[in-house]
């Protein structure tokens, strides 16, 4: 009976590994068949992207205007206490 114990242990280990592999394979196949859960696209996303693009264009314009103003007067914004007037007018 003693020599049968290691043989039964090997057979049990093989059986357990086969069962685990079968369950893992079945679970993997089930996951492959499951469609990805993607929420439907919201039509407002397009509007938000358009608004974001418009804001980006305005920001780019303002950055260019500030750089141009800095190149003309030496600083980008009026000094503290100075009032910004229309271009060409001296304070």
Question: What layout of secondary structure does this protein have?
Answer:
Layout: H1 4-33, H2 44-73
Largest sheet: none
Whole-number mean pLDDT: 82
Shape: elongated
Structural class: mainly alpha
Low-confidence residue ranges: none
Proportion of residues in extended strands: under 5%
End-to-end C-alpha gap: 110 Å
Order of helices and strands: HH
> Helix coverage percent of residues?
55-70%
Specify Rg, calculated over alpha carbons. Answer: 36 Å
Q: How many β-strands, per DSSP?
A: 0
Number of helices: 2
Count of individual domains? 2
Q: How would you portray this structure in words?
A:
The chain is an all-alpha fold and 91 residues long. The chain folds into two domains: 1-34; 45-78. The chain has helices at 4-33, 44-73. The model has no long low-confidence stretch (mean pLDDT 82).
Overview in brief:
The protein is mainly alpha-helical and 91 residues long. 66% of the residues lie in helices and 0% in strands. The model has no long low-confidence stretch (mean pLDDT 82).
Question: What would the keywords be for this entry?
Answer:
91 residues, 2 domains, 2 helices, elongated
């Amino acid at each position: 009976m003693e020599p049968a114990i290691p043989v039964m242990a090997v057979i049990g280990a093989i059986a357990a590994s086969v069962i685990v592999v079968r369950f893992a394979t079945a679970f993997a196949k089930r996951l492959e068949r499951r469609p990805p859960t993607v929420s439907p696209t919201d039509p407002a996303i397009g509007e938000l992207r358009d608004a974001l693009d418009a804001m980006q264009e305005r920001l780019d314009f303002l950055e260019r205007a500030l750089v141009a103003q800095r190149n003309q007067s030496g600083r980008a914004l009026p000094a503290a206490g100075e009032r910004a007037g229309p271009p060409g007018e001296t304070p």
